[in-house]
Write a structure and sequence with these properties.
Layout (H helix, E strand, L loop, with lengths): L7 H11 L4 E6 L6 E5 H17 L7 E5 L4 H12 L3 E4 L6 H11 L3 E5 L3 H7 L7 E5 L11 E2 H5 L15 E6 L9 E5 H14 L11 E4 L6 H14 L2 E4 L5 H11 L3 E4 L1 H8 L14 E4 L6 H10 L4 E7 L7 E4 L13 E2 L5 E5 L12 E6 L6 E2 L3 H7 E2 L2 E10 L5 E6 L4 E3 L2 E3 L1 H9 L4 E11 L3 E10 L7 H7 L12 E4 L13 H8 L2
Parallel strand pairs: 1-11, 3-4, 3-5, 5-6, 6-7, 10-11, 10-12, 12-13, 13-14, 26-27
Antiparallel strand pairs: 1-2, 8-9, 9-19, 14-15, 15-16, 17-18, 18-21, 20-21, 21-22, 23-24, 25-26
Helix pairs in contact: 2-3, 7-8, 10-11
């Protein structure tokens, strides 16, 4: 009999029962560097062994397991193993420094830690200060692990298969830490119910169906330690059972080579990734004709990039998203049918249960077209910030998630993201939204990337500064680019300070890291 799965384990088991011999996942192995293919049955068997190995190490239901690894096949089946025994998954950004890793592991109260071989030296420096008492190292070919680390291969060698722990919808599934672009990272607590609801809602909003024929193939490079990786991609995969093709790192050439080989029908990436791909001189040398749609996430998609996609892939469906880790990761999706008619929009709330409002500082709804704070609610919204009741109370109020992001809805209800509240620039008493300025700069044919931030000003309070990366072979002065904005932006929005740089700092989720820009370039 058909039933609605309520937990991660139930979602996964449904796929194993329905599609045991169907290809489910393609990725490189961290342990030996080989590309591997798994059916649903094979992933079930290998995650069973890892789950049993974790049980043998003492991992119990509800305990937190820190996980630090680059994109690889081991990410997917270890995630499933952790949930098979009812433990809590705590992903850790592989680009963090020692102090940041220590903060997350301690804040999450993780008692177990699984890390790739290359991160073991970092863990060694802090292990005496951590609550975690058991460390598992995922070996790499030809490398040895220290004696205090349990080899991951030992988990794979067990034969006895465990009984799946009976998880409840209200049980905590993951604690995912925010990127920290507005301060110290906060642990977003997501329940089993949050995760399942999100997979259903995001996949449905992006046009996925649970099909037995013509199975979609989804290629992406979102780091698994981000909400895009272990929530967006993972939960759509579990709910709708497409084939996932996971890239280890983003590199334009290897990405295009993989695309030509694996023939994905769907590609998911951040706006910066599409900019790099479409502007690469060898882009047209690769066969990307299998693509039927692209999904953009992690930050707002510039209008000119959407137009470039339409030019590169005639007839391609382009979905633009506005998603939040705290929303599990819920928010809005701009349907492909609206890509050109609602340029610049992030679309409508996820179907069927996401709700969205725009409010002023007094929590009153604003009129269509007026900018305010974006707030959302739905079954996907986080339970809380872990061990942070003050931040929880500030963010979750009266059943609504206050995002800290600014935007407006047009008369049709479509969301237009303008800025994070922190990124809004107040110049001489006028609000300037960096995304609006960036969209205009992207219209210039010589601009490859740009980021707009505020800088202190003695008289105005703040002024607008733009950091611009030019396309190869383009010569452009600040005066010329400023003049280009004259008839496109109000005088107070135009950047008087334009600085050309070789590259913008990008964080692991594909967002331009404005925190680094402010720290390193704004004096």
């Amino acid at each position: 009999m058909w039933k609605m799965p309520q937990t991660i384990n139930e979602l996964f088991q449904r796929n194993v029962d329905d599609f045991p011999d169907r290809e489910a996942f393609v990725s490189v192995s961290y342990m030996n560097g080989e590309w591997l293919r798994y059916t649903w049955k094979e992933i079930d068997e290998i995650s069973d062994r890892v789950a049993t190995g974790l049980l043998n190490l003492g991992v119990k239901k509800g305990q937190k397991v820190g996980f630090m690894l680059t994109n690889s096949a081991e990410c997917f089946y270890t995630y499933l193993a952790i949930h098979k025994i009812g433990a809590v998954f705590v992903p850790i950004n592989v680009r963090l420094v020692l102090r940041e890793v220590e903060y997350i592991v301690e804040n999450a109260e993780a008692e177990f830690f699984i890390a790739g071989h290359e991160f073991i030296p970092l863990v060694d420096q802090i292990r005496d200060r951590l609550k975690a008492g058991v460390f598992v190292g995922i070996e790499q070919k030809g490398q040895n692990l220290p004696d205090w680390v349990t080899p991951f291969s030992q988990l794979l060698e067990v034969e006895k298969m465990p009984s799946v722990v009976d998880s409840k919808p209200e049980d905590v599934a993951d604690i995912i830490y925010t990127s920290g672009t507005t301060g110290l990272p906060k642990g977003v607590v997501l329940t089993q119910a949050n995760k399942v609801a999100f997979g259903r809602m995001l996949g449905g909003s992006l046009g996925f169906r649970r099909v037995h024929y013509g199975v979609p193939r989804l290629q992406n490079v979102f780091p698994f330690f981000t909400s895009s990786g272990c929530s967006s991609v993972m939960m759509m995969w579990l709910y709708y059972a497409p084939v996932v093709i996971l890239e280890p790192v983003f590199d334009v050439i290897s990405n295009l080579e993989l695309m030509a080989k694996e023939k994905p029908t769907v590609y998911g990436g951040a706006p910066a990734m599409f900019v790099f791909m479409l502007n690469h001189p060898k882009f047209k040398e690769f066969d990307t004709s299998s693509l039927q749609c692209v999904m953009s996430g992690a930050s707002a998609m510039p209008e000119e990039v959407i137009r470039s996609m339409q030019g590169a892939w005639p007839g391609i469906k382009v979905y633009n998203t506005y998603l939040l880790t705290e929303g599990g990761t819920g928010g809005t999706v701009l349907d492909a049918s609206d890509a050109m008619t609602k340029l610049g929009s992030s679309g409508l709330p996820l179907v069927p249960d996401q709700e969205l409002r725009i409010v002023d500082q007094n929590d009153n709804d604003v009129k269509s077209g007026d900018v305010g704070e974006i707030i959302i609610r739905g079954p996907n919204v986080m339970k809380e910030y872990y061990n942070n009741p003050k931040a929880t109370a500030k963010t979750l109020r009266n059943g609504w998630l206050y995002t800290g992001d600014m935007g407006f809805c047009d008369e049709d209800g479509y969301l237009f993201f303008t800025d994070r509240a922190k990124d809004m620039i107040v110049r001489g008493g006028f609000n300037v939204y960096s995304v609006e300025v960036e969209n205009v700069l992207y219209e210039h044919p010589g601009v490859k990337q740009c980021a707009v931030v505020g800088k202190p000003h003695d008289q105005l309070g703040e002024d607008v500064v733009a950091f611009v990366v030019l396309k190869e072979g383009i010569c452009l002065t600040a005066e010329e680019l400023n003049a280009f904005t004259t008839d496109k932006l109000a005088d107070y929005k135009r950047p008087r300070d334009i600085r050309f740089i070789d590259a913008l700092p990008i964080n692991p989720t594909g967002k331009v890291d404005k925190k680094i820009i402010r720290a390193e370039y704004i004096k």
